[in-house]
Amino acid sequence: MGKTKFVDTQISKSITELISKQDHRTLMLWAIDCAEHVLPYFEGKCDNDDRPRKAIEAGRAWESGELAMSEARKAAFAAHAAARNANDQAAAFAARAAGHAAATAHVAGHAIHAATYAAKAANYAVEPAEAGANAVKERNWQFQHLLNLCDIH
């Protein structure tokens, strides 16, 4: 693969405006789903490392009241450690998305970071000529998914 640069999309502003109006639970669900959406980029390269998946599971468990925030936070740190160990940018960004998703249990503001890292994972997962389009596709999915979650709650 050649050099790729991540350039965020215009829809990110709409996402930022919409998340500012959401409750903590909705943001957690969205962050988890954003991270899980790109998790295959990590698992395809680091199939023996389950720390990002465990972080996503911890976020879900926190959201359902089955796990303490401190335990979700520990899982977030573990996912970030997995990102540091990854030798692939898309895999590392997917792991960071999972880490920020779990960290949303601690601070709701981590949700936007989970989504941004997910978009970065999508950007770096493909050849440079396709990177921008793949990031746009991911951001559009994130925005639509957030709208759907807002309709549910």
Please, could you describe this protein's structure?
By secondary structure, the protein is mainly α. 75% of the residues lie in helices and 0% in strands. The protein contains 7 helices and no strands. It has helices at residues 11-19, 24-43, 51-63, 69-85, 89-103, 110-124, 128-152. Helix 1 runs parallel beside helix 7 (128-152), helix 2 (24-43) runs antiparallel to helix 7 and helix 3 packs parallel to helix 5. The protein is flat. It starts with 10 loop residues before the first helix and ends with a helix. The model has no long low-confidence stretch (mean pLDDT 93).
List keywords for this structure.
153 residues, mainly alpha, 7 helices, 0% strand, flat
Shape: flat
Q: What is the radius of gyration?
A: 14 Å
**Spans with pLDDT under 50 lasting ≥5 residues?**
none
Beta-strand percent range: under 5%
Order of helices and strands: HHHHHHH
**How many DSSP helices?**
7
How would you summarize the topology of this molecule?
Blueprint: H1 11-19, H2 24-43, H3 51-63, H4 69-85, H5 89-103, H6 110-124, H7 128-152
Helix pairs in contact: 1-7, 2-3, 2-5, 2-6, 2-7, 3-4, 3-5, 4-5, 5-6, 6-7
Task: Provide a compact summary of the structure.
The chain is an all-alpha fold.
